[in-house]
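Appendix B. One record, verbatim.
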Amino acid sequence: MKIVVLGGAGKMGCIAVQELAQDGRVEAVVIADRDVAQARIVADIIGSPKVSIQPIDLTDSEALLGVLRGADACLNATVYYFNLPVMEACLEAEVPYTDMGGLFHNTRKQIALNDRFAEAGVAAVLGLGSAPGVPNVQARYAADQLDTVETIHIFDGIRSPAADDVNFTYAVPTIVDELTLPPMVYRDGEFVACEPLSEFEDYWFTPPLGLLPMHLSLHSEVATLPISFQEKGLKECTFKINYWGMAKETVEKLSVLADFGFAGRDPVEVKGQHVVPRDLMVALMADHVPPISAFLAPPQRRPPDWAKEIVTEVRGTKDGEEITYRVGTVTCKGALPTGVVPARGAIWLAEGRIPPGVHPPEAVIEPRPFLKELEEREIYTRVSISRWL
């Protein structure tokens, strides 16, 4: 099978490329990226004859179609702003599609393409990264065991860096959006907008993470889980993270800049030139993203020691008894799940295991076999059950 990874030279896309190149089911992996120099670095580190490079400008629709035609699946690892146009191209090229998330609002727009994909016989799975992605599958596992589902609470815990570490953990534009846009939660049958960095609580994760401060963040899981489990009576769904895996001090600095308008999207005139404050801030922050070597290591070396656990707590009833499932997926390889999960999803799509239409992960990814595949990359899932007296 041949899989195209759009943004394959990026920090998360490169992990997906390596995962696909190492999988015996995959015959060819295309790094489709505008940064050819970076793509060559990725290809050289991976060192697989399966990997090829194709320059692409996603604003050139004909060029994008040319890259996609003949592929068995497309893994979109670009910034989520491109999700909709890439889906349109996949629909035209009749290529199955997956991505790493649409940050709630974009995800809801993408779901609306379901009928067109179904009619064309093309499959798409949205938000299939570490989070969103893993929490959706975790929630599906727990919900399958329960008669009713009352609450779904997601906690994305990442080992906190040193206070003087000002690096970003993934795409700068996405983090800026998560920091400044109102988080959406689902409560009592309604989607509600909350304040960024609000509703803090301390949560215990599996060692070596331990106790971490968690806060609300805008995320795609909340866009789909309430719909998927509406018939089971879901009343509340939230997503929380600990400073997006960055140092608290770095997030506080960004918050100050946002308060002073540097996250604004309206142009500001400066010495006769019109500048979008947010574009300037994102450009300046680009120097604070670790190099590819921090995310991708040759096969003979272990990835960085970045501990991470994604936990989904699902509370409901079984045979009238109130039960809470805690499903935790943990790894000491940090960013690895964000690339491995969509890579495995792209393979499932290429194998025809996903039906036509646009789906959230919880609707079409079978939890047990999928989570079992992740164990091959030392990404382990544990389940605990609490019964209430």
